[in-house]
């Protein structure tokens, strides 16, 4: 019982089932994000005090009102003690912190103290890299803001709220799965809870650069760069854009807080073969942001995917951001290993399934020369008729775009995965696709679609809103006969490029047998050889993303071969043990094998 909540009826909270009401307001989203590239961060990573809260007691009883004073000073009993001895590392997943917390899905309280306040003329923004699923931020006992979405960053302005001396920052995180969330309560990966990406404060001037996006200007013969700049406030002025290696030192007029300019420049174009990046500095007043940006053009023309005007085929692989030890939390070393394995496989692309991965992935893919399909977790049976669910999905998509749209490696925004076609789904996902196109007309919009079982064709009315059709198919695994794939392809006549966005088979590393021995490495390798043999005969298949680079945790998988893992990985969950299928695909992607896409190598 919170002391400060000692109102007339100390038991009122036991009957208040609308306890979440006060926290529905103040929700932050994509419009509140602040570009932090090149800014000095005050890191808040490290040990935070931590308490699980399965019944949301802290929101009901207002635990956040309790000052962290010692028990001997308490005058009424309490049920929460932010001075408690338990701590947890930020970033991390509580589901990986203690064995007894592995399956905990519920609320939890993070507390840390900040002995710092900004100068009078400074603004301060808190950025949380990701917290799954809903987060509520409190400062010194006052609710500040909430955020919904488990894989995208969010920013909360704390200007004027930080006092000199100790400030108590608390974050309530709720990891519950729910039918109206994105993803909803049924999905094929492990539901990790926690603040699992970095947390930092940023000191900003009174008027600062909220967003700066640079890309190759469309239809300018690769000879111009478009710069779009948005400020924190609707003021007029002049921003600067400097790209020294291109001789760009330009002024961008700002009117009402935003402005854009097309700058003459002929950059060396970014590509997997030549991942050229440029140092870019954007300024306004005393504020500076610094990015390393690659300039390239990606588009679809007819049945071709064109990178910088030349046809390409996406030789990809799917990957979850999952780790047997750290869960959804990752590290630079983990990401570099992931990209190196993709390169070793012979990939020029990765599909980042099924949610926004860590910001560093696209930055390192920019350097490595790997193209990325990034996506939001509009996965399976979303509550498509629910306007609040749509707002959540669209916000996650726009947060992803705001976060990564300066990354040359990101070439595709994926708006969903394996969603049965209904009118509600069509309205929901076509709206998402158009939202992506409005926010960023420079990339392809795709979705991982299902086979149309009524016609047994690759066709989906959503395709009219997509540049690229992704198709998930498992002929040779869930549907044992490959003849189904041959019939499907012969029966289909898509009007835009198709990539096989998923195909795969389970195999337990070390389990050997014949081509028909289920869950054996040999059957998995034979599966891919047969799949590629068929797919490479179809000229409008312009890419393939085998499912999946590593075995990953999934409670839906409980045979003796799986034991809580989806075993379709080409590499086991140790991220070292390669299965026979890894070598099979490496050979299929090599110069010695027939290429996908009907071209020649
Ligand atoms: C589906 C789904 C994946 C899932 C895979 C599988 O295609 O998109 O998320 O893991 O099939 O069954 O292994």
Description:
- There is one protein chain.
- With 601 residues, the chain is of the alpha+beta class.
- The protein has 3 domains: 3-204, Sandwich (Jelly Rolls), CATH 2.60.120; 209-296, Sandwich (Immunoglobulin-like); 315-598, TIM Barrel, CATH 3.20.20.
- The chain is built from 8 helices and 33 strands.
- The strands form 8 sheets. It has a 9-stranded parallel beta sheet with strand order 23-31-30-29-28-27-26-25-24. It has a 6-stranded antiparallel beta sheet with strand order 3-2-4-10-7-8, with no helix packed on it.
- Helix 2 (332-345) crosses helix 3, helix 4 (387-404) runs parallel beside helix 5 (423-439) and helix 7 packs parallel to helix 8 (580-588).
- It is globular, with a radius of gyration of 25 Å.
- The model has no long low-confidence stretch (mean pLDDT 96).
- It binds alpha-D-glucopyranuronic acid.
């Amino acid at each position: 019982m919170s002391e400060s909540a000692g109102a007339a009826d100390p038991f009122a909270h036991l009957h208040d089932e609308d306890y979440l009401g006060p926290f529905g307001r103040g929700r932050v989203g994509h419009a509140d994000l602040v570009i932090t590239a090149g800014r000095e961060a005050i890191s808040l990573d490290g040990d935070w005090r931590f308490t699980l809260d399965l019944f949301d007691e802290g929101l009901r009883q207002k635990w956040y009102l309790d000052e962290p004073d010692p028990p001997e000073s308490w005058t009424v009993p309490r049920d929460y003690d932010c001075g408690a001895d338990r701590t947890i590392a930020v970033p991390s997943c509580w589901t990986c912190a203690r064995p007894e917390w592995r399956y905990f899905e519920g609320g939890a309280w993070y507390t840390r103290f900040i002995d710092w306040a900004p100068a009078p003329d400074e603004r301060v923004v808190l950025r949380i890299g990701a917290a799954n699923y809903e987060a509520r931020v409190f400062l010194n006992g006052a609710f500040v803001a909430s955020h919904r979405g488990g894989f995208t960053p969010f920013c909360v302005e704390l200007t004027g709220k930080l006092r000199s001396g100790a400030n108590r920052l608390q974050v309530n995180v709720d990891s519950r799965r729910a039918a109206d969330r994105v993803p909803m309560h049924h999905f094929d990966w492990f539901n990790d809870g926690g603040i699992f990406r970095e947390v930092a404060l940023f000191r900003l001037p009174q008027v600062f650069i909220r967003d700066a996006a640079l890309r190759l200007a469309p239809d300018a013969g690769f000879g111009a760069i478009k710069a779009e700049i948005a400020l924190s406030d609707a003021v007029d002025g002049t921003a600067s854009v400097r790209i020294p290696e291109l001789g760009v030192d330009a002024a961008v007029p700002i009117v009402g807080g935003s402005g854009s300019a097309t700058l003459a420049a002929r950059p060396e174009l970014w590509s997997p073969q030549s991942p050229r990046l440029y140092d870019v500095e954007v300024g306004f007043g005393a504020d500076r942001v610094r990015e390393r940006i690659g300039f390239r053009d990606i588009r679809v023309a007819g049945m071709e995917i064109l990178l910088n005007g030349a046809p390409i085929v996406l030789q990809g692989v799917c990957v979850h951001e999952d780790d047997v030890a750290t869960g959804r939390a990752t590290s630079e070393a983990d990401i570099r290993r992931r990209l190196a394995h993709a390169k070793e496989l012979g990939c020029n692309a990765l599909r980042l399934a099924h949610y926004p991965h860590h910001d560093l992935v696209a930055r390192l893919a920019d350097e490595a020369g790997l193209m990325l399909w990034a996506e939001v977790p509009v996965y399976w049976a979303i509550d498509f008729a629910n306007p609040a669910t749509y707002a959540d999905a669209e916000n996650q998509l726009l947060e992803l775009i705001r976060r990564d749209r300066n990354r040359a490696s990101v070439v595709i925004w994926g708006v969903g995965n394996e969603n049965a076609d209904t009118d509600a789904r069509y309205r929901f996902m076509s709206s998402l696709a158009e939202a992506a196109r409005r926010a960023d007309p420079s990339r392809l919009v795709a979705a991982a679609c299902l086979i149309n079982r009524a016609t047994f064709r690759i066709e989906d009315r959503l395709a009219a809103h997509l540049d690229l059709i992704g198709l998930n198919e498992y002929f040779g695994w869930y549907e044992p006969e490959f003849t189904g794939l041959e019939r499907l392809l012969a029966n289909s006549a898509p009007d835009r490029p198709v990539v096989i966005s998923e195909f795969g088979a389970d195999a337990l590393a070390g389990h050997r047998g014949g081509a028909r021995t289920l869950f054996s490495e040999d059957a998995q390798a034979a599966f891919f050889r047969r799949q590629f043999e068929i797919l490479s005969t179809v000229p409008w298949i312009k890419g393939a993303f085998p499912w999946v680079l590593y075995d990953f945790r999934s409670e839906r998988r409980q045979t003796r071969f799986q034991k809580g893992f989806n075993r379709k990985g080409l590499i086991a969950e140790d991220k070292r043990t390669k299965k026979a299928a890894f070598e099979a695909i490496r050979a299929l992607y090599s110069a010695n094998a027939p290429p996908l896409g009907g071209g020649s190598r």
